[in-house]
Amino acid sequence: MYPDDPGGPRVFRAELPDFGKSLRVVFSGGPGNGPAATRLLIEAMSLPKRPDLRNPRRWADGALAAGAAPLAIRYRQRGQ
Questions:
Q1: Is the dihedral of CA 50, 54, 58, 60 positive or negative?
Q2: Do 11 and 39 reside in the same domain of the chain?
Q3: Which end of the chain is more exposed for a tag (fewer CB within 10 A), N or C?
């Protein structure tokens, strides 16, 4: 994404060269769940921000860390 409006810090242009498209992306609002909630506006679509608890990246990071810990312990025990 690239800035698309010098006067608007929340306005960007998303280039999709594989599809031959260029979309204007606008982040609006602020934190919270009310009418001023953070939203991603792409052309005619409005996408609300997902709460941090439901963010799949955090779940994946936690699962990766939980799986890596026993491997690190096993590796350390073999080295001694």
A1: negative
A2: yes
A3: C
